TrEMBL record:
Topology with respect to the bilayer: Multi-pass membrane protein
GO MF, any single term: sodium channel activity
Record-linked InterPro entries: ENaC
Subcellular location: Membrane
Gene Ontology CC annotations of this record: membrane
Family: Belongs to the amiloride-sensitive sodium channel (TC 1.A.6) family.
Swiss-Prot/TrEMBL keywords: Ion channel, Ion transport, Membrane, Sodium, Sodium channel, Sodium transport, Transmembrane, Transmembrane helix, Transport
Protein name per UniProt: Vitellogenin
Length: 172
């Protein structure tokens, strides 16, 4: 964890809300960043084609815009549901959006293991027919702070522009 104020940001599709801590990036306050957003879009065909994909978006629409949109999401949704049924809370390690209480640090399941039970679902679901993923490439850049100086000969805007040009020339 950073020692200065920061923000976790995860870029995602509108169909799934990932944890910014698991799949996001950390940006520190008081610093500037140049980011480049890359999108990867994939469209596959369902059975009988070789890709044998699962149309999660169709299932998502049929469920009123709720539910998992990937094989991993199916497993995580199952885990959240099973843990909540057993413990009336969901462990923080379950990466699926929910409105249930978060369990304390010591999580003991009474009898069955929701993770093992839910992993069997992965065999019944395949890769998504339609998927969009985002990645970010970024770098931290310097912040230039200019202090306006009152001049009889130049207005503050002209003077600021001149100072910025000088700083940029000195950087190259």
């Amino acid at each position: 964890l950073p020692i200065s104020p920061s923000v976790q940001i995860a870029i995602h599709t509108p169909y799934f809300l990932p944890s910014p801590y698991d799949s996001g990036n950390n940006y520190q306050g008081g610093k500037a960043y140049e980011l480049r957003l890359l999108m990867d879009e994939t469209h596959l065909l369902p059975s009988p084609y070789q890709t044998n994909c699962t149309d999660y978006l169709k299932m998502w629409r049929e469920n009123g815009g709720k539910g998992p949109v990937s094989q991993t999401g199916v497993v995580q949704e199952c885990r959240a549901r099973r843990y909540n049924e057993q413990l009336d809370c969901v462990p923080i390690k379950v990466d699926y959006p929910h409105t249930n209480s978060i369990c304390g640090t010591e999580v003991e399941s009474n009898g069955s293991n929701p993770t093992e039970e839910c992993l069997t679902l992965a065999d019944r679901y395949n890769q998504p027919c339609d998927s969009i993923s985002y990645t970010t490439e970024g770098k931290q850049v310097a912040i230039t702070v200019g202090k306006p100086v009152v001049s009889k000969f130049m207005n503050a805007e002209e003077e600021m522009r001149e100072k910025i040009e000088q700083v940029l020339q000195n950087q190259h």
